[in-house]
Structures are given as structure tokens and as C-alpha cells.
Amino acid sequence: MCEGVPPRPTAGLGRRLLLGVLGLMILACDPLGLSSATDKASEQFFNRLLSVFYPDRGQQQIVLLLLDDAFLLRHDLHWPLPYQEQAKVLARLLHYRPQAVFVDLLYSHDHSRANETPQVLANVFARYTQQDIPVLLASTGQTLPQTDQVDTLSALAAVTKPAVVQWDGQGERYPLTVTGRDGQPLSTPAYALYQEHCQRQQGCETRELPVDAPPIAVQWGLHTADQQPLLSNSQHCQLRSSALAETFQMVLSALFWRFSSPAALPCPYTLTLNAAELETTLPEERALLRSVLQGRLVLVGADITGAADRIFSPVHGQIPAVYQHAMALDNLLTLQTGYYRDPPNLGDTSLDLISVIGLCFAAAILAIALMRDQGWFIRTYLRTGLALLLLIVTVLCYQLRLTPLNVVGLGLLSLTLFRHHLEARAETRDHARQGE
Asked: Per 3-state DSSP, what percentage of the chain is helix, strand, and coil (rounded to 5)?
């Protein structure tokens, strides 16, 4: 009876609208983590792009000292390093009078061997602390159950300051402070060193950073320090080129990473010194070390096979975790209160303003995709306007130092929803060619 009657357009529109609303709900609720994955990919992509233009103001004030496998092999040592050997390395470092030192090693348990105690290391810290060179030691922020004291050996805790290196609930963000078991805020290494720096330097904004300030969305830098070739062989490091060429290379590697050979990762951004280099007795090399270390903020870390704590940098790949502390400190020195951060959440939800704007863009993309009755010119005009608005909002996010919109997810959504338009145009071209 109904044969030959074409289907009503509203039926197809209703199905498409239902699927579109379901898609928006999936983006908002993120049950499978797809939106979170594309959001992370988008943030890492922009982090790599901006690393080309990251200024070197903070880089000139930070040095990282590494204890690595080469140092252990050179002295026929094992890990953990004996207190006597640690005392030698840190005494050599403190002799050059840095502004402050953070040691990214935990001293929760005594691993003394024959004829040594932690006191030999505490004596070194005490001597230079009295000379107004503060030493900060890594801490978990917890207390030892048997003593109900901080998780640092008492001999060391008496002459140093704690800096918390473990925290929960921040994801990949870097907090300024962590709440201790007694409810008091404990500074993380980057913020603790920043406070020490601001006590000795003018122009800091430390008073404007409340203890409940939002955590840092760490922005990484690309270019190695100018003094790095003087301290180590850096021929394997990525050579500098123009900012435009580096940006173009970043975009190509992000888009076509499956079809290209893995590019050599750049060397770490922070000026890095190996512990063995402190042992030099040559006057010219000691003068170089003095110019590099005196008055600088120094972080001491380890890169030992099988015992290293590593993190992922969107620019450098897997690197020792101490570099994250150094880069967060660099962000504070360079950007001060204007460091990159997440926008505040809306109420008690996990949605923030940027996520809501992203959902609005997704809804607009859906609306344009459903406008099949409109002309091709109108749809193209609306899509172009939406793309320009997305670009403006993305730039505005970075001007306000906020994490970016999920442009990767929005791009994939656009390709999915406008697929039928692309297929229709391809079929039209094919029919035209066959008619010729």
C-alpha cells in the first residue's frame, strides 16, 4: 500500500539528531576516556609547538646535577650511594656557593655501611647552611609510624628543609603545595626553591601566590642552554634552526608520525652537569664550574638504570623525574604568577570552562552537519567561521595561560560528521568525469 512513497526527511533527521545528541553526551560524560585521550593529545601537541618559543629567562638561573651510571662505573660504586660518597659530591657542589640546592633523593631509612653514618652527610649540609646556602631534601610528606616524625633521618632533617615530591589527585599537574597529615601546607621542590630565590632577589611575585594557588600545567622548553656545549658533548643534540622551520617540523612529525622514522629527541632544556665533572682540578675548568654554579638554583637527581624515577615530557620523551621539578621551577621564574594552569571547575563537577566551550563547539559542528537542506555555500561559510572562531579561542586560551581546547577531538568529530559531505562531493566528481 505504501510502495513507492519516499521516506519522510524528518525521519532521517531525527535519527541523525539522536545520534548527534548521543555523541555529545559521550563527549561530556567521557565513559570510555576518548575525550580525555584526545584532550591530552591536543595539550601535548600545543606544548611541543610552544616549546620552540619558550624564553630562556629561567634557564639562566637553574642547573641540574646528575648522578648516573657513568659516575658509578668510574668509581666502582653501587646504588644507593654510600653517605661518604654523597658527602664528597655535595661538598664539591656547595663549595661553588649556589643560591640553594634541592636533593631529589629520599632519606627515609638508614642504609649505613661499616664505618659510616648519615652524620657525615649532615655535617656537610650543616656547614653550608650556616653560610646561608639552604639545602632542601626530597620528602613524601608522610611521617614514619614508628617515630611519628617526618620521613627524613633525624640527623639530616635537623639541618635541611623538606620538599614534597609525592602527591595525589593532581594528574600530571605540578602543585605548589601539598597538604601534610597535620593539615599544614608543604612546599613542593619548585615552589620551595622559588621562595628561596625570592627571598634573595627583587622582582618576584611570591606574595601573590597563595598556598591554594592552582597547580602548574608545566610548559616545556626546547632549546638547550648556551653553556651546555662547554660542559658536555652535545653534538647529538638537536641543532637549532629558525622558529618557523622548527614549528613546521613539529607539525609534520605530529601529523605523519606513522610514516616517518623516529626523530632524535632533543637534549633536556635545563643546563645539566654530571657529578664526575665536579672532580676536575684544572683551573680553567674550575673557573667554568664557578661561573655555572655560583648563585644558581641547583637540583641534584639520579639517572640510575633499574632505580631511576622517570616521567614523560611531551618534548623530550622519558627523562629523569628531577627534570620536571626543574621545568616547573623554570615556569615560576619565567612566568611567575602567569604560569599555565587549568581553568577552575564548574561547581562540584569535573567540567571546567574550557570543556564547556569545547562542548559548545561540538554542538555547533553537529548543527552544521545536520543542515543538509541548506546550500553548500552556507554550510561552507558556517564551517569556515566556526574554524576561525576556534582558532581565536585557542589563541586566547594561551594568552590567558590556560590549557587549550581539545582541538584534536573537535577535528576528529568534524571529519566524522562531515564525512557524508566529502563522500557526496567525491561521487559528484566521479559522475562528472564519467559523463565526459
From this structure: 50, 15, 35
Q: What is the pLDDT of residues 366-396, one digit of tens each?
A: 777 777 656 666 777 777 887 788 788 877 8
In angstroms, the CA 367 to CA 3 distance is 32
What radius of gyration, in Å, describes the C-alpha atoms of the chain? 27
User: Tens of pLDDT along 290-328?
Assistant: 999 999 999 999 999 877 688 999 888 889 999 999 999
Q: What distances in angstroms separate CA 178 from CA 165, 171, 299, 340, 348, one per listed residue?
A: 9, 14, 20, 19, 21
Per-residue cell: 123 = 655535617
Cβ 163 vs Cβ 137: under 8 Å: yes
Q: Is residue 78 domain-shared with residue 40, that is, in the same domain?
A: no
Range in 211-215, 341-345, 422-426 the model is least confident about:
422-426
Query: Do 60 and 42 fall within a single domain?
Result: no
Q: Residue 155 and residue 319: Cα distance in Å, rounded?
A: 31
- Residue that terminates a domain, selected from 308, 338, 368: 338
The answer on 183 and 72 residing in a single domain is: yes
Question: Given 293, 316, 338, which residue is the final one in a domain?
Answer: 338
* Average pLDDT of span 211-222: 89
Task: Give me the sign of the Cα torsion angle 386, 389, 394, 397.
Answer: negative
Domain count, the chain: 2
Query: CA-CA distance, 192 to 181, in Å (whole number)?
Result: 19
Q: What is the pTM of this model?
A: 0.82
Q: Quick check: helix, strand or coil at residue 417? A: helix
| Predicted confidence (pLDDT) at residue 120 exceeds the cutoff of 60 | yes
Among 289, 296, 378, which residue's Cα sits nearest to residue 370? 378
Pairing of strands 317-320, 310-313: antiparallel
Phi, psi dihedrals of residue 209, rounded to the nearest 5°: -105, 100
- For residue 134, the SS3 value is coil
Q: What backbone phi and psi angles, to 5 degrees, belong to 12?
A: -65, -40
